[in-house]
Structures are given as structure tokens and as C-alpha cells.
Design goal:
By secondary structure, the chain is mainly beta. Helices cover 8% and strands 35% of the residues. The chain has helices at 9-25, 180-187, 351-360, 408-413, 544-548, and strands spanning 34-46, 53-58, 67-70, 74-81, 90-93, 119-125, 130-136, 147-153, 166-175, 200-203, 236-239, 244-251, 257-262, 267-272, 275-282, 284-287, 292-298, 307-314, 323-329, 377-388, 391-396, 399-401, 446-448, 452-454, 459-465, 478-482, 487-494, 513-514, 516-519, 523-530, 535-541, 552-557. Strands 10-9-12-17-14-15 form a six-stranded mixed β-sheet, with no helix packed on it. A six-stranded mixed β-sheet has the order 21-20-25-30-27-28. Strands 11-19-18-13-16 form a five-stranded mixed β-sheet, with no helix packed on it. The model is unreliable at 1-28 (pLDDT under 50).
């Protein structure tokens, strides 16, 4: 027989108090959301830098809408291709696509292109907080205006290792007046026609081209370039005096490495490619195509005036004027010009400044993800400029990359081994005899669409080795982006990588994790990753023209673990 237990009012009150304490100190777990977007791609005439040209817009906008989500949310993008004469695909840059490799959005690697008039649905989970991007991954469409930002925050109740009052996104882009098709035709021609330097730098889709430079007796300049067009009014970042701002700064330039600076203000770097950085202060932020950073800005200067925000080209002799925006101190008018001249930024050829920033980026103490202490495989990728059958190409270990007609993911899952070259590219080059400081004596390269097959769950080291181009005393900075992974940045060094001694200098204590990293002029960059995400993943230079000209490779790992492919990605596949 059960004995009734009496609970006194005092004891009951204690239970209630304990319950409330638990609720207050342990925040409820936020339920992941489904966030739906319906986009339509169209060609439209726009004047982002005052010069009128055809651009690819998303729902009438370029840059496209910012995707805002919380960690763990599912993103669904219903994409209608209304370009009518042009295929497309969109890559979700920095999103690892765990268990959804078919939605990485890389035409020729993970999917067939989206044909004109078709609607394609992308669906994936944003599994980590941070600052990410999306952009076209078909031909050279990115530079036509098909790009935008992804901002992923922590769920409610969780906090980051830094504090701020407001969150803002700034996306940087260089801008050409020639179409991507005109540029691609020149790159694929004999004689070779280089794309040249961009005409403008855009800050959040706005720049200012000098329309008077087009003056010609036979041209009514105002019909093609109008300096009073509101579309090219400089972007204004409005701040409230005394407040702290998180600026999520990202770059999707087609060519240019950039320096971003705010007149009279320091910035504290706190995040890189979705990973917390041990904070350090900069006067200017060097940023390469495909990179994202968060910096903290304190609005602590004279509030009676506005200040310049400028973006300047580095690593190439500038042929492009600086990008200008206004840091607007409320309540000053956002179009009120600062009383000073824009700050010039660092010298374009000051390599050591750029290398020093790269070396300063370490994982935040308390948020270090320790790398494996040893590697299973090392692949050294020599970046060179070459010729193939008279065409100018970029090559990796003397092999210039071509995409196959059948995407690798489909070919491997369907066992269509005829679809691409089964001979893998080399793991290295002639370390002993190749002189990285001079024009190569043998400028000829081969082409291939072969891929690297990685053992699943193995640890892989990649060393990016820079070298001289086909021009005397010239080496270019290349930002390399890895799909499907983050990697540990183990180190940078000048000159030729020493496979015996330089690994002893790797940072295995607090390396930052990133998805995009530069290899500096005449130097090397070492990175390490785990091949633990089943799929087929591109790794390539993020400069549009360089990847178009063959500067990339592809990794396969754990293909047998990839689930059933959705039929929507396989429209271009025909069995023999």
C-alpha cells in the first residue's frame, strides 16, 4: 500500500526556486529553422559604377540578397534561370555540404548546369556560425554580378568571444565593363588577349567610374555613363558614436587582391572564414578573393564629420582607382563628403606587410581545433604559367586542368569511368631542377581532367608553391579555395619549399582554420585537412581568369559513402 508523502510549502518553494535557477542558467536549445528563398536570375542593365552594362541580377539586385540564418538551419533556395541563352550554377562558398555534396553548386564537378528556363532547388544545412558567400560557378559568371553574402549567427543563448552592438556586411568586388564572354574569348584566343585591370572597385555593389574619360566626339557619354545615377552613389556605412560594430568584410573579386581601410580608425580582426581569430589590431585589412573576415570597429572619433572607407589594389601594379565609401557618423548626412582626401592605403608591392598579416592570423585561445600531428600524404602543387598548343594556360605541376562534360560526382557514382582521365595528376614536380625565380625554360604543359583520389579519413598536406610567370621578374598572388572542407593553415614561407626541413616549422599549436588562403609571390603556403567529407571537391585559384585557364585540381574521397544522387543534378548525363 502506497504511503502518501506530504511536501511542505517550504520544500515546494525550494523545488520551484531550483527549477527557475536551472532555466535561467541553461538556455533552451533553439529549434533549427527552415529558411526558404525564391530567386530569379535575369540579365538587366545596371550602372553599379555609373557605367551602364548588362549584369546578372537576383530578383533585380546585384549583389544578391544576403542570406541570414542561425547555426543548424536548413536553407532552401528555389532558383529559376531566366537568362534564356545561358546555363548557370551557384556555389555556396564556405558551406561544407556535409551529406549534401550534390548541392555544392560547382558545375562540372558536383552537378550539371541549370539550363535556361529551368528551376533548380538547392537545400543544405548551415552547420557553423560565421561569414560565408555565394556566387556563380559556371564559366566566368561571377564577375557579371551573380554573388552575395551568407551570415550565420549562433542560436539564442550562446555567445561569441567578443562583444559588439551592431552587425554589418561589406562585400568587395572588382568590376569590368567588358562582358565575361568577351573576356573568355580573349583568354581562349591565339594570340592571347589578357583581360587587363578592372575599371572599378565596388563596395557593397557601388563604385564610381570617371565618366569623363570616355569623352569622344562620336559618343554621347551620358547614354552609357552618368555620374549622377543614384545606382552609383557611394555606399554609406552609418554608425552611432560610441557604439561598436562587427563588420563582416568579404571579397569576391575576379582578379584583384585588396586592402580595406577606414580613415582614422583601427580595426580588430576577430573572425576569418567562420573561425574565431585571436584578436589583433590592424590599420588596413588585406583580403583576397574568396576570403571573409569579421573586424570590430569602435565609432570613437570626432562625430561632427564623416570619414572615408577605401579599398585599394595590392599585389598588382594598380590600373584601377580606389573604391570609395563613406563612414557616416550619425546624425551627419550620409552623402556629406569627408573634409579630407581619401587615405591612399599601403604600397601595392609591399609584400612583407601582406605576409605579416597572414602570419598573424591564429586560432582564438579557447576555440583551437587541434590539427592531426602527422600527415598521411603530402601533395606539392607548383603554380606556373605555360603554353599548350599555342594557348596561354595556368598549370599545376605542369598540368592544366579542364572540366569534363560529365560531372565527376555523377561519373563516379554511376561508374562512368570513360567520362574523365583515370590517370591522376602528379603529387609534386621536379623539386631539384625547377627554378621558381626565373621564366621556365620549358613553357609547354599538358592538359588533363584527371583527379586526386584520397583515402577516406586520411590526413592530407597541401603545399602551394608559387613561381615566376612567363614574364621576367613576375610572380602573382593566388588565393586558393577548397570546397567541402576547412583546412589548418600550417605556415607560409619565402622561396622554394624544402620538403625535408620546412615541415619542422609548421604551426601545430594554434593554426587558424580557413577555406581560402593566399600563396604569396615567390613563396609557399602549407595547409592540412582531413579527407572526411564524402564527395568530390574542387580546389582552385579563386581568380576567375586563372581557374578558367586551368589553375585547379579536384579531390575525391569516400565516394562509396555518398548517398543516392538527386535526379535534378543529372540533366546533362547520357549513358553510352
Amino acid at each position: 500500500m502506497a504511503v502518501p508523502v506530504k511536501i511542505s510549502g517550504l520544500v515546494l518553494n525550494l523545488f520551484v526556486l531550483l527549477f527557475l535557477v536551472c532555466v535561467m542558467n541553461f538556455p533552451a536549445i533553439s529549434e533549427a529553422k527552415i529558411r526558404r528563398h525564391k530567386w530569379e536570375l535575369k540579365y538587366e542593365y545596371k550602372s553599379p559604377d555609373c557605367f551602364k552594362k548588362l549584369v546578372i541580377s537576383i530578383n533585380g539586385r546585384t549583389p544578391g540578397p544576403t542570406i541570414v540564418a542561425e547555426q543548424g538551419d536548413t536553407i532552401i533556395v528555389e532558383l529559376k534561370n531566366s537568362l534564356w541563352t545561358e546555363n548557370t550554377a551557384i556555389h555556396w562558398h564556405g558551406i561544407r555540404q556535409i551529406e549534401t555534396p550534390w548541392f555544392d553548386g560547382t558545375e562540372g564537378v558536383t552537378q550539371c548546369p541549370i539550363l535556361p528556363g529551368e528551376t533548380f532547388v538547392y537545400q543544405f544545412v548551415v552547420d557553423r556560425p560565421g561569414t560565408y558567400l555565394y556566387h556563380a560557378h559556371y564559366g566566368m559568371q561571377r564577375e557579371a554580378g551573380l554573388y552575395g553574402s551568407i551570415r550565420v549567427s549562433l542560436p539564442p543563448g550562446l555567445s561569441e568571444p567578443f562583444a559588439y552592438d551592431y552587425d554589418r556586411s561589406i562585400i568587395l568586388m572588382d568590376w569590368y565593363h567588358k562582358s565575361a564572354y568577351e573576356q573568355a574569348a580573349g583568354l581562349s584566343s591565339i594570340p592571347f588577349q589578357w583581360v587587363g585591370e578592372p575599371q572599378s572597385i565596388l563596395i557593397n555593389g557601388k563604385g564610381k567610374f570617371n565618366c569623363s574619360s570616355l569623352a569622344s566626339p562620336s559618343l554621347n557619354v551620358s547614354t552609357v555613363c552618368n555620374a549622377t545615377n543614384p545606382e552609383c552613389t557611394p555606399y554609406a556605412l552609418t554608425v552611432i558614436p560610441g557604439k561598436t560594430y562587427r563588420l563582416r568584410i568579404s571579397s569576391l573579386t575576379a582578379l584583384s587582391a585588396l586592402s580595406f581601410q577606414l580613415e582614422g580608425h583601427n580595426m580588430t580582426v576577430v573572425e576569418a572564414d567562420g573561425h574565431y581569430v585571436e584578436p589583433f589590431v590592424v590599420q588596413n585589412l588585406f583580403i583576397y578573393s574568396g576570403e571573409t573576415y569579421s573586424v570590430l570597429l569602435k565609432a570613437d572619433q570626432d562625430p561632427s564629420r564623416n570619414y572615408w572607407a577605401t579599398t585599394t589594389v595590392v599585389s598588382r601594379k594598380p590600373g584601377t582607382p580606389p573604391g570609395l565609401a563613406i563612414l557616416n557618423y550619425y546624425p551627419n548626412h550620409p552623402r556629406r563628403s569627408p573634409p579630407t582626401i581619401p587615405p591612399p592605403g599601403p604600397g601595392w608591392d609591399h609584400v612583407s606587410l601582406r605576409v605579416n598579416q597572414s602570419l598573424a592570423i591564429k586560432a582564438h585561445q579557447g576555440f583551437i581545433i587541434s590539427p592531426p600531428q602527422t600527415t598521411d600524404r603530402m601533395i606539392v602543387l607548383l603554380n606556373t604559367q605555360n603554353r599548350f598548343n599555342g594557348f596561354v594556360r595556368w598549370s599545376v605541376n605542369n598540368v592544366s586542368f579542364n572540366l569534363p562534360h560529365t560531372p565527376y560526382l555523377i561519373a563516379l557514382k554511376q561508374n562512368l569511368l570513360h567520362a574523365f582521365d583515370q590517370t591522376p595528376p602528379p603529387d609534386g614536380y621536379d623539386f631539384k631542377n625547377h627554378d621558381i625565380f626565373n621564366v621556365s625554360q620549358n613553357k609547354n604543359a599538358t592538359t588533363s581532367n584527371g583527379i586526386y583520389r584520397l583515402d577516406f579519413n586520411s590526413t592530407v598536406d597541401i603545399v602551394l608553391q608559387n613561381a615566376n610567370t612567363m614574364n621576367v621578374n613576375n610572380s602573382e598572388t593566388h588565393p586558393w579555395h577548397l570546397h567541402g572542407h576547412d583546412f589548418w593553415v600550417l605556415g607560409y614561407g619565402p622561396g622554394k619549399f624544402d620538403i625535408y626541413n620546412d615541415p619542422k616549422k609548421f604551426n601545430l599549436v594554434d593554426p587558424i582554420m580557413k577555406n581560402t588562403v593566399p600563396v604569396h609571390t615567390y613563396g609557399w603556403t602549407a595547409l592540412r585537412f582531413r579527407a572526411d567529407n564524402p564527395g568530390v571537391w574542387a580546389f582552385h585559384c579563386h581568380i576567375e581568369s586563372h581557374f578558367f585557364m586551368g589553375m585547379g585540381v579536384v579531390f575525391e574521397e569516400g565516394i562509396e559513402k555518398v548517398g543516392r544522387l538527386p535526379s535534378s543534378i543529372m540533366g546533362c548525363v547520357h549513358r553510352p
